[in-house]
Design brief:
Largest sheet of chain B: 9 strands, mixed
Number of strands of chain A: 9
Structural class of chain B: mainly beta
Bound molecules: fe (iii) ion
CATH topology of chain A: Protocatechuate 3,4-Dioxygenase, subunit A
Strand content of chain A: 15-25%
Shape of chain A: globular
CATH superfamily of chain A: Aromatic compound dioxygenase
Oligomer: heterodimer
CATH architecture of one domain in chain B: Sandwich
Structural class of chain A: mainly beta
Helix content of chain B: under 10%
Mean pLDDT of chain B: 93
Number of domains of chain A: 1
Largest interface: A-B, 80 and 90 residues
Mean pLDDT of chain A: 97
Distance between the termini of chain A: 32 Å
Distance between the termini of chain B: 13 Å
Radius of gyration of chain A: 18 Å
Shape of chain B: globular
Low-confidence stretches of chain B: 1-6, 240-246
CATH architecture of chain A: Sandwich
Radius of gyration of chain B: 19 Å
Chain lengths: ~200, ~250
């Protein structure tokens, strides 16, 4: 026998369940008066630097139906590619940009809307620049462990073509599942949990 | 704090087999929602290693007291009063300070305040069902609530959820993000629950069962349950750039 590594095991994940919004966006489900507003609804203010954009997301299940009971959190760099986080070792990010957003979808349409800015480029582990991207974390009933993925920007073809994460995907046919087309100032990102167009999810 | 430099290392790889698989047909909602292709790994970049933090100033005074945070003045929620407390730790056994912990639950009758919950147990006008706290420098959190009831749910014809509290926890990196559920020591319903049983390992399930702690009760007021949560550990950076190690 060798010495013991004094490590703990990560607490096992469980689904957020059908009422995930009660805990994380209570005002959306008419539980008002506990929190003044739901966390993460505002990512920007008047002073935020960078290009203003709207990102609209939808999630489709294996039958092709739009899911309306999910919750999405996003995490992204500021316009200079810096994260508003104490764990950011490279410099101080724009204090007027949180970088973090949380939304429930519209109950009728199933569209998640994030008002944000286009992020700058962030280095990969070897120093190469990644294409601009937004990290996502998706939870819902029927999702046993939060799904991790990324959204890339459709008008960044050059950067996407050299992105260290996108280029390392074995099945290059799947790259478009991570790229949101641009229309005006709005990007639309459709997430497919299953099927031919299944979004690439990450294990990071 | 001991380690004043920003922690910049990545996190230990997640042990996927320890967690419930995405596709777990005993829990029917997973069948059409589980991705069918393997998730793809890549080395963690600043996008994964960093994460948002929240300041204590955002907390309201009653945010960690579900017995009164939705109640009319002078009234309180119905049900057995309990304190839930514990620490947020990482896999290196270190406390995770200054992170947001959110919790939500059904009322004492097992009914959620949600228009989609049609269970015939009544709503409690004084119970909203959500609260939050931020861990202190040693990773401690606590809140006061009422013990939630078990409730039936449409899965099998007679499936019931054991009494539980949902938890959402932030770490210091976005990939530490975790949602889980806390169960109560001694509840026989735990082992029958199709959602609990998505977890393959008994030891992993036991890690979700809070212990009754009679030494931490508030006499004549509330019993206490202790529930620690473990987040992914940070890889040591001491060999790379002489940052203080773990
Ligand atoms: Fe529940």
């Amino acid at each position: 026998m060798a010495q013991t590594l004094t490590r703990l095991k990560e607490t096992a994940s469980q689904t957020g369940g059908p009422y995930v919004h009660i805990g994380m966006t209570p005002n959306v489900c008419d539980i008002n008066g506990i929190y003044p507003e739901d966390l993460g609804v505002h990512m920007v203010n008047e002073k935020t630097r960078g290009e203003r954009i709207t990102v609209e997301m939808r999630i489709f299940d294996g039958t092709g139906s739009i899911i309306k009971d999910a919750l999405i959190e996003v995490w992204q760099a500021d316009t200079d590619g810096l994260y508003n986080s104490p764990s950011e070792p490279r410099g101080k990010a724009d204090p007027n940009f949180t970088g973090w957003g949380r939304q429930a979808s519209d109950m009728e349409t199933g569209v998640f809307t994030f008002e944000t800015i286009k992020p700058g480029r962030v280095p990969f582990t070897d120093g190469r620049l990644q294409a601009p991207h937004i990290s996502l974390w998706i939870v819902a009933r029927g999702i046993n462990i939060g799904l991790q993925t990324r959204m890339y920007f459709g008008d960044e073809e050059e950067a996407n073509a050299e992105d260290p994460v996108l280029t390392r995907l074995e099945h290059q046919k799947r790259v478009p599942t991570l790229v949101a087309p641009r229309n005006g100032n709005t990007y639309t990102f459709d997430i497919h949990l299953q099927g031919d167009q299944e979004t690439v999810f990450f294990d990071v | 704090m001991k380690n004043m430099k920003p922690e910049a290392g990545g996190f230990f790889q997640r042990v996927r087999q320890w967690h419930p698989p995405a596709f777990a047909p005993g829990y029917k909602s997973t069948v059409m929602r589980a991705p069918q292709k393997a998730p793809i790994a890549f080395p963690q970049t600043p996008s994964e290693i960093t994460g948002p933090v929240f300041g204590r100033e955002m907390l309201g005074e009653l945010d960690n007291d579900l017995t009164v945070n939705y109640a009319k003045s002078g009234e309180s929620a119905i049900g057995p009063r309990i304190i839930v407390y514990g620490r947020i730790l990482d896999e290196n056994t270190r406390p995770v300070p200054n992170v947001l912990v959110e919790f939500w639950q059904a009322n004492a009758g097992g009914r959620y305040r949600h228009k989609k919950d049609g269970y015939l147990a009544p709503l409690d006008p004084n119970f909203g069902g959500c609260g939050r706290a931020i861990t202190d420098e040693d990773g401690n959190y606590w809140f006061r609530t009422i013990q939630p009831g078990a409730y039936p749910w449409p899965n099998g014809i007679n499936d019931w959820r054991p009494a539980h509290i949902h938890f959402s926890v932030f770490g210091h990196g976005f990939v530490q993000r975790l949602i889980t559920q806390m169960y109560f020591e001694g509840d026989p319903m735990i082992w029958q629950c199709p959602i609990v049983r998505t977890i393959p390992d008994t030891e992993a399930i036991e890690g979700l069962i809070a212990a009754l702690d009679m030494d931490s009760t508030v006499p004549m007021d509330a019993r206490a349950y202790k529930f620690d949560i473990v987040l992914r550990g940070r890889r040591s950076t001491m060999f790379e750039n002489k940052l203080e190690g773990n």
